[in-house]
Amino acid sequence: MATLSKESFCKALALIKEQDHINDRVSEALELVCGNRVVYGTSSKYFEALLLVMKEALPDKYGYIDWWLYEAPSAGYHVELADGSKTWELKEPESLYDFIVNDCP
């Protein structure tokens, strides 16, 4: 049972994506100054805490939230059963929420 509303879940994911974009821009600026590859914001305790709470509030036992944030863009935002009999398109945070709460095998 989910103890986090779909609205709050989607807002949190949007804010995480926004912060990732900001971190990328800061990294690019630091690279100009330093002349080396710089990755900013990779070990944020705030972010770790937020993910911990989201995973506890939803039954995300397989780590789909992490997957959606970092691997789903290159995977086309879809998951399927091992036998290919069912596929879920998870492009929007709302779809991810519904999948985790209602359909996750």
Structural notes for this entry:
The chain has 105 residues and is mainly α. It has one domain (6-103). The chain is built from five helices and two strands; from the N terminus they run H-H-H-H-E-E-H. A two-stranded antiparallel sheet has the order 1-2. Strand 1 (78-80) and strand 2 form a beta hairpin. It is globular and about 50 Å long. The model has no long low-confidence stretch (mean pLDDT 86).
In short:
The protein has one domain (6-103). Helices cover 61% and strands 6% of the residues.
Cα(first) to Cα(last) distance is: 14 Å
Order of helices and strands: HHHHEEH
What is the global morphology?
globular
Mean pLDDT over the residues: 86
State the helical fraction.
55-70%
Strand order of the largest sheet: 1-2
**Structural class label:** mainly alpha
Number of domains: 1
Helical region count?
5
Radius of gyration: 16 Å
Largest sheet: 2 strands, antiparallel
* Uncertain segments: none
Q: How many β-strand stretches?
A: 2
How much strand? 5-15%
